[in-house]
Amino acid sequence: MDDEAISIKLTRDQALVLSDWLYQVMFQSDDLAGIVRERAVWSPIHAISGTLDTALTEIFRPDYASRLEASRERLHTQMYGETSESTVSIEDDSPTERPAIDRSLPR
């Protein structure tokens, strides 16, 4: 078996949005088992999540929610063009966005 490492490059916006999604799925909702039924996939998911959390200092800043929202809006605009709508996940058909998760360190 070849254990050569693979590198994946993400923009900071992509990394922040992906990190938040992984955090929600893995630690807030316990949905990982429902979304990813193949348990072997959990190993790379945990590796990616850990790498992102180590690299992103933004997740511990008090303005995390506004940074995350700005990243979401930039990525949405890059993929779909200008829009006046707020970024809402595809699964969520409600008109308002879910509240941001506070990932700042306890004081």
In short:
The protein is mainly α and 107 residues long. It is built from four helices and no strands.
What does this molecule look like?
By secondary structure, the chain is mainly α. The protein is built from four helices and no strands. It has helices at about 10-30, 30-35, 40-55, 65-80. Helix 1 packs across helix 3. It is globular and about 40 Å long. Mean pLDDT is about 80; it is low at about 85-100.
Q: Descriptors for this entry?
A:
single chain, 107 residues, mainly alpha, 4 helices
Please outline the helices and strands.
Elements: H1 12-28, H2 32-35, H3 42-55, H4 64-80
Helix pairs in contact: 1-3, 1-4
Structural class: mainly alpha
Characterize the biggest β-sheet: none
**Fraction of residues in helices?**
40-55%
Calculate the mean pLDDT score and round it. 78
